Amino acid sequence: MSLSETITFFLFGLAVLFVVAVAWIIFKKRKKWAIALTSVLVVGYIGYYAYYPYLKVIIHAEKYEQVSEYLVTTYPDRKFMVIPEQYEEGDTVGYFDVNDEETPDMGVSLHVDKNGQVQQTGNWTTGEFPTQQELWRGLEFGYGESYTLDRDNIEITKQDEWIDGELTVFALTIDGMPAIAVYEYSRAGYGLMDLQVAEDDLFVSTSAEGHTFIYVDERYKEETAAVLVGDGETISVDAAEHKGKLFMFE
Fold first, then answer.
1. CA 79 to chain centre
2. By CB atoms within 10 Å of each CB, which of 8, 90, 97, 222 scores lowest?
3. What are phi and psi of 32, to 5 degrees?
4. Is the pTM of this model over 0.70?
5. Which keywords does this Swiss-Prot/TrEMBL entry list (predicted)?
């Protein structure tokens, strides 16, 4: 039982004691009535306290059916994992973690209120510490708008990578456009330092720790590409030679 539920039952118990005390004052000359009322209140309180855990199991099962029906109706072409299916001690009645079966590492938290309405209360990831080569996958959750079940799927594909100690750079394709993501990675933690996504051109560049990184998409048709480097200088690179690869120069 949660702290809030414990406090609620405590206050309810005080209310019962108050009513019992008032009843004995009112019916002090009719003790049988006072005893009868006291018995009804105390037995009712104890009975409800004992039944309450089973009531939570029943209510949660009903809300599980409601959230499952909501998902089937709203997203008929998708399959979801919904937990917890059965209420266990420590769970909150009517709250569920939901994820698309295709994305088991991230999902949303849904709440079914007393009227059967389903609302998203948050989103989540498994929080597992990624390998250095898999850092870019965090963008599937964090890129663009906050993750919801209604958000359009973002297609992110790794094309190449460059790793030197803690500095980690990926050439990516995000929704069909070339991109470069720069991370810092160590045993103590990791973080996204920079993300550049091409807007119109099919090439992109960025600078980090004295290095300039360039990625030219395979679809780029020109022989050369004019790239703006960190010091404001524009250089011409051989696009034909470096297509589809992440390359670096200092």
1. 17
2. 90
3. -65, -40
4. no
5. Membrane, Transmembrane, Transmembrane helix
Query: Cα separation of 102 and 83, whole Å?
Result: 16
Percent of all residues in the chain with a pLDDT value above 70, rounded to a whole number: 98
Residue pair 162/181 in contact (Cβ under 8 Å)? The answer is no
Calpha distance 33→177 (Å, rounded): 81
Q: How far apart are CA 234 and CA 222, in angstroms?
A: 17
**Percent of the chain, pLDDT > 90?**
43
Per the listing, tokens 């079966």 go with: 101
Which are the contacts of 89, defined by CB distance < 8 A and separation ≥ 6? 1, 53
Instruction: Write down the pLDDT at residue 230.
Output: 61
Reading the block at residue 120, the tokens are: 């998203």
Question: Tokens 């679809």 belong to which residue?
Answer: 219
Q: Which of 229, 242, 161 is nearest to 202 (CA)?
A: 242
Look at the block and give the residue holding tokens 């708008």: 145
